[in-house]
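Protein: Elongator protein 3/MiaB/NifB
Species: Ruminiclostridium cellobioparum subsp. termitidis CT1112
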Amino acid sequence: MSLKCKLYEEVRLKNEVTVEGINITDEVDLLLRNLDLGGKYQEEVHGMFEYDREPHAGIAHPVGFRSPNGFLFPFNSYRKSRFSIGYDKGSYILTENGNKVFDIDFLERPEYYRHTTSDGVQMKNIAVYNHEGVVFVTYSNECHLKEKGLDCLYCNINATKSTYADVEGIKWKYPKQIAETVKLAYEEPGRHHVTLTGGFVPEHREMDYYFDVAEAIQNETGLNDFNGTAVIGAPEDHGIIDRYKEAGYRTLAINIELWDKNIFKAICPGKEQLSGGWENWKSSLEHAAKVFGHGRVRSNIVAGLEPKRSTLEGVEYLASKGIVCFAGAWCPNPGSELENHRSPEPEWHWDLVMKMSEIFRKNGFTYDQLYDCSASANSCIHDIYRIEHGLLPVLKQAI
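Structure follows.
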C-alpha cells in the first residue's frame, strides 16, 4: 500500500471514531485519571456544546489525540462504541473491539491556558484551543430561542450551560477578556485564527458586540487584520454584513444548517420564524460572498438530518457562489430534542466527505481559505487537503 493510501485509511478511521465515539469503560476511566489533564495535556472545556453522549460534570476528559501520522482525532465518549483507549508498553493506544490499532499521543495543553485575564478569569474559559493555531470563542453560552420554545432540535447549547457553567466557571465573555486571550494565544507557534460565536441573539445587539470585540482585539494585538471569523445569524438587513468586513473580520459564517427547506422549517423553528426563513439565510450567504469574496464565507449543514442528496446539492450550490459549506457529522447531543437518536453510519459520512472534498477542489478553494474560515482546521476535509497538497511532515520527508 502506498503512503498516500495509508494516510487516507487513517483519515477514514478518524471519520469512524468521530461518528462512533470512544467507549470509556471503568478501566479507561482509571487510565484517564492518571493522565496529567490540566497540566501537560489539554482538558475539555465546554464552551458551547457537549459532544459526549453522557454528561460528565466534574470529571475531566481530554479533548483529543493524534494518530501516528499527525491527524487529530476528537475524544467524544460513547459507551456503545467499538473504539476505546488502552495502555501498552508505556504508551496510550487506540483499540477497536479490544485490539490495538496504533499508539496515540494526547494533545498537549497550550501555554495560554495557564494564564488569566486582567480581571482574573482563566483564559481557557474565554477561548478554547482547537489546535493548529485556531482559537474558538463562545461569547455567550446560551441561546435566547430557548425562552421562546424555538430551539433547533439538534442543539444542546442551553443544556450544556445548565450542566457545566457553574462547574467549569464559564460565563459571558467581555471584549477586553477576549482581546487579552487572543493576544496571548497568538504568541503560540503556527498559524493564527479566531472564531467568535454564541447563541442566537437579536441582530443589532449581536452586531454591536462583535464590533466591540473586533476593536478590542485590534487595540490589544496591534493587528488591523486579526484573521477573525464572525459567526452571525442571517440579518434581514443585508447591509449589516458589509459592516462586519469594515470592522476588520476577514471571514464571515452564516450557518444554514439544512438545505431542504421543509426539514429546515421543522428542525430550526427559531431560525425559520425570527430570521426571515430559509430564503433569507440563503440570500444572506450570497450577499456575504459578494462582500467578503470567494472562499471567505462559510456555512454549515448538520450532516445526517436530511438526505445526502440534499446536503450535496447545498454544498455544490453554495460552492458555485464562492461559499465554503462544511457538513460535519451530526452528533445526537445530550440535552437536545434529538438525544438518543442515531447519526448515519460512518460509511455514509465518509462518502459525503469524499464528495465534498471533490466539490471544494473543483470550485478552487485553497487550504488557506479553508483554514481562515473554519472554526477548526482538523476536519477530515482539512486532512484530505493536507494529503493532496503534501502539507504533512511524513509527506515532506518522503519527497
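Remarks: The two ends are 17 Å apart (CA to CA).
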